[in-house]
Amino acid sequence: MAYxxxxxxxxxxxxxxxxxxxxxxxxEVLRKYVGGTGLALYYLxxxxxxxxxxxxxxxxLIFMTGPLAGTRAPSSSNYVVVSLHYEIPxxxxxxxxxxxxxxxxxxxxxxxxxxxxxxxxxxxxxxxDDRVEIRDAKAVWGQGTRETERLIKRELGGEEDKISVACIxxxxxxxxxxxxxxxxxxxxxxxxxxxxxxxxxxxKAIAVRGTGDVAIAHRPTFLETVAQWEAxxxxxxxGSTTPLGALWRDGGMTRQHKIMAGRGQVAVKNLTDVDxxxxxxxSYIDACKEWLVTPTPSYxxxxxxxxxxxxxxxxxxxFTASLCGGGEPFEGAAGMVGILDxxxxxxxxxxxxxxxxxxxxxGSLMGxxxxxxxxxxxxxxxxxxxxxxxxxxxxxxxxxxxMLERRDFGGKLTGDLKDVARDLGTEDLxxxxxxxxxxxxxxxxxxxxxxxxxxxxxxxxxxxxxxxxRFDEANTKVGKKxxxxxxxxxxxxxxxxxxxxxxxxxxxKDVLPLATKSLVKATGWDDFTEEDALRVGERTIMLMRLIxxxxxxxxxxxxxxxxxxxxxxxxxxAAGTSIAPYLEEMVNRxxxxxxxDVETGRPPQAAIKSLGMEDVASWLGIS
Length: 623
Known about the structure:
Elements: E1 8-13, E2 18-23, H1 27-33, H2 36-47, E3 61-64, E4 79-84, E5 92-97, H3 101-108, E6 112-116, E7 123-128, E8 131-136, H4 145-156, E9 164-167, H5 170-173, E10 181-183, E11 187-189, H6 194-200, E12 203-209, H7 219-231, H8 244-248, H9 253-256, H10 258-262, H11 274-290, E13 292-295, E14 307-310, E15 320-323, H12 328-333, H13 342-355, H14 359-374, H15 380-383, H16 393-405, H17 408-411, H18 417-424, H19 447-455, H20 481-496, H21 511-523, H22 530-550, H23 555-558, H24 563-566, H25 580-594, H26 605-610, H27 614-619
Parallel strand pairs: 1-6, 7-12
Antiparallel strand pairs: 1-2, 3-4, 3-6, 4-5, 7-8, 9-10, 9-12, 10-11, 13-14, 14-15
Helix pairs in contact: 2-22, 7-21, 19-20, 20-22, 20-25
């Protein structure tokens, strides 16, 4: 019995409209990669044809949970979606989501789903314990994610709260860059544009209902361990600041977003106006004090960072917006184009989620376009009459609709971010890393966090432990930042393989020993150590790098970062200070810490062998 794991992987061939199951990989593989991001990347490396591109039918789209998902471990709600990155030609993409979908998939008896091929018509997948169906999606094609969830649940019948639906909206159907997968209203996976890849496969949704449980090897001690972990959720670990879960619990972003403003981290007006960021943040907090905020916890979650806001006054009175726990979505959807009104900000963020378009991508793109208009680089003649003055809500929503329909000025914005910027003559204004959007904050005041976004192996993503990067205020002393970024990256990516939320881990007291012991007691791997756990994280980093190398990555790609993102802010805590002069040195020192060649960024055979990954290197043609 595969304790801690569901004992099978679900395979879906959309070319043949066929499904089947297969056993988990051998124990040796599970111990190397554990689950989640690592195991999904392992399958991606093994099964992606050489020369294939993101969105090609033969490229797998992989949903993976983890051995603690669906258990009594804290916030055991995480799943990851992995495929080739839709924006970065050499990189894998990995987007994370929470809610109930991962737990329900585990309870249905599946550790993950690997989808290949493309259907000749819109379909959705229904998993009901042992019964798996590929069903016609004609009735929901063209619908937003909210209505898709509702209609599919109504069609399937039974208790709706026992079904979780992960789906795409109009952005995924249109195969827009930045298209995401949404589930359980408040949650979504966006990095790598997995929604666009689902659209390429004509797959509208995956609905899951599971009635089983997860087998635990040593249940009494497992329950004792996860109880201690849960008791520590809001207690800081040694060397950390306040745990993230303590900051954002019970819809905390509606109260605590001022923390971001105080650091000069709020992404507004395409990162040009720190003072406006303070106003934006305060407007949001003040409005949420007056309106009805309801926390919406994920499976077995005591943090409840996601929330609904019912607007009770103003033009949007009566409207309820469903948001996840971070500030990135409303900064990207509203702040980056100069929206100040909180009602408009909530409505826009909810609209992004409904159409299934990641706000980070939209913020990078639209912030650039609005700044170009306000600086006179583009005019009404270029925009077809749209007035893109900062904060013009009506023009902004029209522009989004044009993109979905690929028409007029919006139709010119649907390609790669760097291609769009080049066509508009606005390359210097684009906020990007390697041609893809970032997690939408202004990271320039925090160099460790910024470097973590730049060095992440799947394009900019949360791959470091922020409460441990308390040293990272912008300054001209590089210090030990690159080495510490690598160390926290190993820990963060180990946690990403477990099936638990990052907010249950980041900054939490004793989380490394507690998470390791939880895995041991769940699986029965009594000799698995904390050192083994960190090596799992290091293998995950190595998987990302080997895939990138096999697809043409070179060291110059590491420094492919938007000028705006590394220039010195004009005001705020980081005023006049830029990471740019130190970035190459930081990359070199990171490479040394990782054991990679400093001149090329390639891992040598000795490093690959030390992690037991010769098979992966062989599949990818790396000698």
